Amino acid sequence: MEFPAALKQLIHQPQNVAILSHRNPDGDAIGSSLAMRHYLDQYGHTVHVLFPSEFPEEFEALPGADDILVWDIHTEECKHVLRNKNLFIYLDFNALNRIDKMGDFVKDLPGKRIMLDHHLYPDQIADFTYSEPEASSTCELVYRFIDGIGDNQKINPTVGKCIFTGLVTDTGSFRHATNANVYRIAADLVDRGVDDTGVQDMIFNSQKEKNLRLLGHCLANRMEYMPEYRTALIWLSKKDYEIYNIQRGDTEGIVNYMLSIKDVRLAAFIHNQPTVVKLSLRSKGNFDVQEICKRHFNGGGHKNAAGAYSHDSLKATIQKFKDLLPLYKEALLKKN
């Protein structure tokens, strides 16, 4: 990455900064936001991290997580904080509708904007845009941003822990979406004192009993396997949400279990939310789930990981997804 002098000046002189990320923040959104916050703290900036909605409990152990403001909970406080900012940093999203009502609020506020993101088709919403869809994660971009500005020495173990969190989560523990840079960055972070096994333990070994019971229910009772399309599907109803007391983040990662089936190339997780039906799609190889989400379900994302939503019923959404499979049969059956 190459950075203009005006951007370096913004970073190196104390500003009043808001770091924003997307609704339903995942490990990359949380990790990149907190990494950027702890980096900027070293320059004396006044920094707040704000999300539209709550984040999964396993990330509460990250340094600074307790200070995150959530629009859905702290709406008036968020408005007050945002009105006083003069620098807005957008991480892990590239369109203001990804931060919902918070996007409507910030779009006309005065101040400079910086965007770091790795999703396709970015909107022109920032003064300084660094969009690299081939990057593994926004945390990878945050590392390269700090390094590229010449502040590599400021990537301390606290910043590094947050960056490592996003690397792990957005690559599925280095199983997909990787590149040579990811491994170089991970090795450098460990050299700097990041407890890599501790981060993995925080993410993957802090589940509640109900999460394992929910996973068992999904695999035993809610999974459909369609070998003729090399596709697997898991669905959850509103009743399932009540029975298992499913909260935000409890279903994270369930879709990935279907990809462990040898011949599955497309995995879909379709579940009932209060106002919409959500879809999470994952794939192996060159099969593009982003295209399905964008064309048919008001969504988008990456080639191998994308999300969307539907205003139809759960049953109708599942049927629509199944009806699309013959259109993609040839691509699904390709050996790549």
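The record above closes out task 2.4. Task 2.5 opens with a second protein, given below.
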Amino acid sequence: MKILISCAILVLAGLGPAHAQTAMAPSSREQIRLTFSPVVRQVAPAVVNIYTKRVVHTAASPLFADPFFRRFFGEVPGMTRDRVQSSLGSGVLLRSDGTVVTNHHVIKDADEVTVVLSDRREFEARVVGSDERTDLAVLKIEARGENFPTLVLGDSDKMEVGDLVLAIGNPFGVGQTVTQGIVSALARTNVGVSDYRSFIQTDAAINPGNSGGALVDMEGKLIGINTAIYSKDGGSNGIGFAIPTALVRNVVDSITKGGKVVRPWLGIGGQPVTADLAQALKLARPVGVLINNIHRDSPAAAAGLQNGDVVLAVQGYEVEDSEAMRFRLATLPVGSEARLTVLRGGSERQISVRLLAPPETPPRDRSDLAGRHPFSGATVVNINPALAEEIGISSGLSGVLVLGVKRGSVAHRLGVQPGDIVLRVNEKPVPTVAELKQQLQGERQRWSITVNRNGEVMTQVIGG
């Protein structure tokens, strides 16, 4: 069971940027008695508490929620009532104008957002933008003339396993709290908290209410935004996760400039290199992503990438799997160049790719289908790179995607599912929504539909 939380990391004073060469374990009682208080005093004012409220409409009685009752009696005065639902979390001030970063799940569906500073001053805040796929959101405090304390964004890529850290947040709503631990692991990609996974793992105690809090290094710089913990009972078990600032920086910049996140597009599909593949490719160990699909109009195609290439690193950072590669690309702004280390024909080469925003080509042509056919009640759309990036599917896919299925409809009863890619109707290819609609015209006694569901091609015959 996962509980969403927040973390902050601090490191002992005295270790500079070159701490990788000079760091050592304490060797005396005096060194063990060193305190974190100077760093806490420096960073704590920039870590805030966030309180949200949203109005939830509920039935005054279970009877009023019954569809049978509504069908015959319609809306009855007083049948619904409003209930205010509150939640809490944490956040970090990044700019003196009141720009705050927190988790998406902290402010999701909120009608009111209140930010409380460490000195107990309260301010209303508005949501500038939010990105569910990275679980990050940007707020702006509504206050003129204020000069707020801030945290400086550090370099999460310089953190090492074993570095001391502090987590700062508002656990269980008790107020600002500081806990200490170490970096337990880096680049955790198997944590299903968001779509872009390369988390910093820490054993610093973090609990519900810490979500969106700060993770800082020993120089008082932010290196992560606390997001989740593994827990069976809702408390800290010493396994917490933070979003690295390598990703936070790009998401915040994108939201503050345009109100939403625009991620760069490479235009490839691939699979992680397994032990068997590594042996066949003569790699010393399983690492990298084997390219098996390239969009013909993509930056990858323009740069000369080929099917069968293995991407070993992005910007010099090794990528162990597809999640790690996706994360590294997401840290780069649109319009920048990505330097890929690629294995081709047994030798490594460097390939530069200019990253673009994913295009809306072909147009989505979103359509709600109705009529006497197997897809009646389904919502379909043309797959394009922008949609693929938006919903998290391979940018190499094309065709007609089922976005949703109305409950109780013909499509629902026949087992059509969101995520299905429609390949053929009555043995004829339907690469676009327009061609699918054309094939669905007219009445037939027998239908044959073929879809791609999670990589498996399935054919269903209905009637006759």
